[in-house]
Design goal:
The chain is about 45% helix and about 0% strand. The protein is mainly alpha-helical and about 70 residues long. The longest helix is centred in the middle third of the chain and has 16 residues. It is elongated, with a radius of gyration of 17 Å. The two termini are about 15 Å apart.
Protein backbone atom coordinates (compact mmCIF):
# COMPACT_ATOMS: atom_id res chain seq x y z
CA UNK A 1 0.00 0.00 0.00
CA UNK A 2 1.30 3.42 -0.93
CA UNK A 3 0.30 5.02 2.36
CA UNK A 4 2.56 2.65 4.28
CA UNK A 5 5.41 3.43 1.90
CA UNK A 6 4.96 7.19 2.19
CA UNK A 7 4.79 7.03 6.00
CA UNK A 8 8.08 5.11 6.02
CA UNK A 9 9.71 7.72 3.81
CA UNK A 10 8.19 10.78 5.53
CA UNK A 11 7.71 9.84 9.19
CA UNK A 12 7.14 13.36 10.53
CA UNK A 13 5.37 15.04 7.58
CA UNK A 14 7.20 18.26 8.46
CA UNK A 15 5.08 20.43 6.19
CA UNK A 16 5.20 23.35 8.62
CA UNK A 17 7.27 24.23 11.67
CA UNK A 18 4.85 22.72 14.20
CA UNK A 19 5.05 19.31 12.52
CA UNK A 20 8.87 19.14 12.56
CA UNK A 21 10.84 17.28 15.26
CA UNK A 22 12.61 20.44 16.53
CA UNK A 23 9.52 22.64 16.53
CA UNK A 24 10.32 26.18 17.63
CA UNK A 25 6.93 27.74 16.95
CA UNK A 26 5.88 29.73 20.00
CA UNK A 27 2.13 29.37 19.44
CA UNK A 28 2.00 25.58 18.94
CA UNK A 29 0.53 24.88 22.37
CA UNK A 30 -2.53 27.05 21.63
CA UNK A 31 -2.75 26.66 17.84
CA UNK A 32 -5.26 24.34 16.17
CA UNK A 33 -3.19 23.84 13.01
CA UNK A 34 -1.35 20.70 14.24
CA UNK A 35 -4.65 18.89 14.90
CA UNK A 36 -6.08 19.98 11.56
CA UNK A 37 -2.94 18.80 9.77
CA UNK A 38 -3.08 15.46 11.61
CA UNK A 39 -6.60 14.89 10.23
CA UNK A 40 -5.54 15.94 6.73
CA UNK A 41 -2.47 13.69 6.79
CA UNK A 42 -4.58 10.77 8.01
CA UNK A 43 -7.04 11.27 5.12
CA UNK A 44 -4.12 11.57 2.68
CA UNK A 45 -2.59 8.29 3.89
CA UNK A 46 -5.97 6.53 3.77
CA UNK A 47 -6.41 7.61 0.14
CA UNK A 48 -2.90 6.46 -0.75
CA UNK A 49 -3.58 3.10 0.92
CA UNK A 50 -6.25 2.46 -1.72
CA UNK A 51 -3.35 1.92 -4.15
CA UNK A 52 -0.21 -0.17 -4.36
CA UNK A 53 3.16 0.37 -6.00
CA UNK A 54 2.01 -1.82 -8.89
CA UNK A 55 -0.70 0.76 -9.63
CA UNK A 56 2.00 3.32 -10.46
CA UNK A 57 3.00 1.75 -13.75
CA UNK A 58 1.24 0.08 -16.65
CA UNK A 59 1.37 -3.70 -16.35
CA UNK A 60 3.89 -4.02 -19.19
CA UNK A 61 6.38 -1.84 -17.23
CA UNK A 62 6.10 -3.60 -13.87
CA UNK A 63 8.82 -6.18 -14.42
CA UNK A 64 11.29 -3.45 -15.39
CA UNK A 65 10.29 -1.49 -12.29
CA UNK A 66 10.90 -4.55 -10.10
CA UNK A 67 14.29 -5.10 -11.78
CA UNK A 68 15.33 -1.47 -11.25
CA UNK A 69 14.37 -1.60 -7.56
CA UNK A 70 16.07 -4.93 -7.06
CA UNK A 71 13.05 -6.50 -5.41
Amino acid sequence: RLGVLVKEMEPDFGLVECKRPNNQCIITSECKLPAILDLAIEAFIEKLDEHTVSDLLPEQSRQEFIRLLGI
